[in-house]
Design a protein that fits this description.
MetI-like fold; 335 residues; 13 helices
Amino acid sequence: MLVTYILRRSLFLLAVIWTASTLIFFIPKLTPGRNPIREKLMQEASRGGFLQQGMEEMIKAYESKFGLDRPLWDQYINYISDMARFNLGYSISNYPKTVIQLIGEALPWTIGLLVTTTLISFALGTLLGALIAWPRSPRWFRALVPPLMTLSAVPYYILGLLLIYIFAFRLKIFPLGGGYSTGTVPALTPAFMLDILKHSILPALSIVLSAVGFWALGMRGMMITVQGEDFMTFAEAKGLPQRRIFLNYAVRNALLPQTTSLALSLGHVASGSTLVEVVFGYPGIGTLLARSIAGFDYFTIYGIVFLVIVGIAIATLLLDLLYPLLDPRISYGGS
């Protein structure tokens, strides 16, 4: 039964990836009258202060190279074929760099920032939410609900702007933005690692402060729900220690929806917190995506969104397989 279930879910996963990939191919094409090749060449010409000779010939040559002069259905077939082989092609705005190269340069920054902040905020928020809802916790924990609700309602980038103003502009404790100091040569040295850490504190703090309230409120609601269940009453009737009831009965059963949200959040890591990275000038996937959208760099947009789709699909599949380990009541062995 488990093998059949995995096979069925894998086929469903492929269908989801194909459908989503088809949508992200056609949606950018719906914008009328925009030629990314022409716009890019005109931008380069304006920077040089003169209109380059033979512009139309250059546009036709580049359209032919990127396949934009072919019929739409032909472009789609080539696109699906390339996606199946993870051949994301060349970037229009950064030619001759490939999309894989651009993503490879930006992805470690995003993973380092978002995976760390997501796990920290999940652990901290889940623990706070469980303690807030637990009747035997100190009363002062309940006073955390209003600030957590406020933080959960504030977008990452608003907190980011506030942190920049206080800690970077006014107090000058942290840098205004960027991944590392201007003029620094990237190298695996303690000084460079410390410089990266210093630049990542404010964007990380903006994400953690906003996300911890979301995780805490979600866990608080689930903890309140499970406290009225029969297994909680039975555990108390058996005279089990309160710590065991809290961890093994209340937290474990309330953790399942939290784990679902965590898996989906980790699946979104590839897209980055776009606005946070843009606000801080952080060289991650979010910044790359924003620049690609602004420059109508179709292939880079396709590559990033495709990476996000695959990440979410894989995270969902792994979550389905891990559910029985988190909750023994769930089984794929049939009724």
